[in-house]
Amino acid sequence: MIEQSKVLTVFFNSKYSGCLPFPALDNLGQQLIPLYDLEDSVMIDKAKFVDSFGFVTDTLAQRKGITISFIIISSFFFLIGIVALVFVIVKSKRAVP
Predict the structure, then answer these.
(1) What residues contact 66, with CB distance under 8 A and at least 6 apart?
(2) How far is C-alpha 62 from the geometric centre of its chain's CA atoms?
(3) Mean pLDDT of 57-70
(4) Whole-prediction pTM value?
(5) Taking a C-beta distance cutoff of 8 angstroms, is the pair 41, 66 a contact?
(6) What is the pLDDT of residues 16-56, one digit of tens each?
(7) DSSP letters along 19-80, please?
(8) Which of 11, 43, 86, 96 is the most exposed place for a label (fewest CB within 10 A)?
(9) 43 with 3: CB under 8 angstroms?
(10) Is 33 left (phi over 0), alpha (psi -120 to 50) or beta?
């Protein structure tokens, strides 16, 4: 099971550097004022995760199989091309007296 927790407090800072009309409020412009507290936790177990996102692993396995198949077929035709080229060269040398 995977568990992740976050605790976060968001503050408001006006960054006001000027003078306010009341001298007692001058410090208020530089203070951080808490707006809200956020507490978040996420828990998920492996079976639930695979049920939700299992298609990703299936797609990767399928893509790997397709890639290997394409490499094998390409190699086969490449070798057939080399053999055909050798036959053409050998045959053309026999034809020349």
Answers:
(1) none
(2) 18
(3) 82
(4) 0.41
(5) no
(6) 666 666 666 666 666 777 888 888 888 888 788 778 777 77
(7) --SSGGGGGGGGS-EEEEEEEEEEEE-HHHHHHHHHHHHHHHHHHHHHHHHHHHHHHHHHHH
(8) 96
(9) yes
(10) beta
